[in-house]
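Anyone else keep sequences and structure tokens together like this?

Example one:
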Amino acid sequence: MQKVVERFLRYVSFDTTSSEDSSSVPSTPGQLELAKELKRELEQLGLKDISLDENGYLMATLPANTDKSIPTIGFLAHMDTSDGASGADIKANIVRNYDGGDILLNAEQKLVLSPKDFPELTQYIGQDLITTDGTTLLGADDKAGIAEIMTAMEYLLEHPELPHGKIRVAFTPDEEIARGTDHFDVAKFDADFAYTIDGGELGELEYENFNAAKANIVINGRSVHPGSAKDKMINSMLLSMELNSMLPSFETPGHTEGYEGFFHLEKLSGKVESTSMQYIIRDFDKSKLEARKERLRKIADYLNDKYGAGTVVLEIADQYYNMREKIEPVIHVIENAMKAMTEVGVTPIVTPIRGGTDGARLCFMGLPTPNIFTGGHNFHGRYEYISINSMNKAVETILKLIEIYNR
């Protein structure tokens, strides 16, 4: 338990916030710095076939120590953190023996982590938690996953009496900006199947995710002095409000859950003459995703008919698809993960991912890759926290899963 915590606290000291505005790979230099540190650690631990390529993809092998025919299992985690809050100068705090009350994160800002706002905190009474200081995110997504994989590999190396097949590990960049598998070499990784250690609360096991698309919209207006603007000015910002009002008001992230899809206005900036909008579009059902995309197209066509051709310029691109169709033919990867959790005292929570992981894209690249919990909560913001007990259970789950495939 102490080792996984020490690793995690060391990893979060690296600022690895990814940037969608960057065209480099990885998108930010801090990710490569962490990758180099992880490479040194893998070498010190004694893993083999360690490679770090120019794009920041780090891979390594724990060779089999048995002659049994066992599938090669992969474990992956991503190095970058979201830009939802600062990932620089993280000051993590350990709350010992949590008493169930408010946790003061930042006295100066009067910021508290409260079970009134986050009732799931009460599940962790009596446990040790790691929180932020209220000025940054924590980085458990996904540095907790890296620490848990590393600790499991170290345990197996320290206990050669435990038989296992060939195990591959990989740490990747830019997952948070949906580029995490853009340069991932599935053939080089050479695993039969894999697991991303990138989930949330204790017990999460996920093999369904959104089908996803992104819409970029530019609205072209006409700027005229407001004193003489009658029947001349076209205010692109007002048109953006008109466009958004034509989408279902309750089909947004703040009004949906479970298998419900949504339109999410992610970015908006503009002046009278030009406004840019960026939506992400999500649905578990691929046909419903197509219907959502078509709805946006019809809105754009309507506004162009109303205000003139070229007023609304819409570009839509698919991002990833629901991994379920690729997991079901190898459902043992889910059944054995559930069995592993149960055997280490964790209740599996099979739930759809209201988002996407590297695993979703890897599935469609030929590598079935469901997602297992890290133990964290409230990712991407200042209220992020993780249970140390849950981190330890993630390590135990990895080890038990490896054991099950050796039986």
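And example two:
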Amino acid sequence: MRCDWLDQLRGWAVILMIEVHVVNVWLNVGLRPRWLNFLNGLVAPSFIMCAGYSLVLSTFKLDGTMRPLVPTVKRLGFILLCAYALHMPSFTLAEWTVRSTSVRWREFFQIDVLQCIVFSLLILHGLARIIRRPMVYAAVALILALIVALVSPDLWRPGVADGWWLPVRGLINGNTDRGITSLFPLFPWFAFAAFGSVLGAIYRHYRILSNSGKARWSELHWLVTLVIVGGMSYLWGSLHAKEWLSGSVFPANDLGRLYNTTLPSVAERLGLVCVAGALMGWFELLRGRWMGPNLIVVASRESLLLYMLHLNLIFGLLLADPLRRRMGWECNSLGWLGTLGLTLLIIGVNLAVGVAWQRLRKDEALAGRIQKSALVMLAIWFVVGGWSTACY
């Protein structure tokens, strides 16, 4: 069962994620207001929480059984392959050999948001299949979320996990080690996926399972509950976030760096995400049907495609030396007008591709041929591409 509020939340998170990357790359640092940085900081929690929420609805059937594990593992394996592909030294053999460096190879093991989601979901899938009872699973997931958020600041202390095997190292914290800084370690980011699973289990119990042929709650009842829970979470987090680490063993100059790893900070962001999702769901209940495809739902359902596409557009095409120099698009060199124009352009291209791909997918044979052709072209480019510039 798909949830309108979840589709809206995930779709807007994908669109704002594009804005985040455009702003971080091109907007002059001195022009960024604090409110924008705060808003952008809610994108990853939304994305990760939605993944945990969907896990419950896609795993537990209405009759109490569970869907097969193999298709899920294949899907997560494909997402993980895409995640690490984005961190490869290059998509050409020339860059892998002639121009590769040890630092670029170490960057391959950096933990980004997709890796965080996959590893979090694998843990939660294992937990779900051990427990096999959705509401009990939700209780355990909630406990895990609280524990992860509580211990995260300690795991971010200087020196923790330094020198560990690189594929595991970045899962522990975001401290720089051997030149590599992971942006989304499991501590504390796993907490967002686990809490999303809690919400998913509650939604399943009260909105999907029937009681005498009728759901226990209406959709409006659920959205009101989401606002109340989210509001309470935000208020508690905002009241305790600043002083949570005060008086602790952490050095004073570490407190700012550790702010987002604390339980109150996690609660604060989760609360805002829940309230935002509820308001989006409420809007979907009230608005009439608009002509054409719902672009927010397109972004939600094609989130992996848009994630991969916009990163390659920004970092692979627009930041390529020839285009960057010709257009003057140097990093952190643009004002608001130029940044806004690039943001709208890249979002528009991504949504257009998403709509086109949804239409193509209706013809499975054609979509399969396109995918195979793309893989063949990528394989050819891997062998022959990049040699002209690799010699300089």
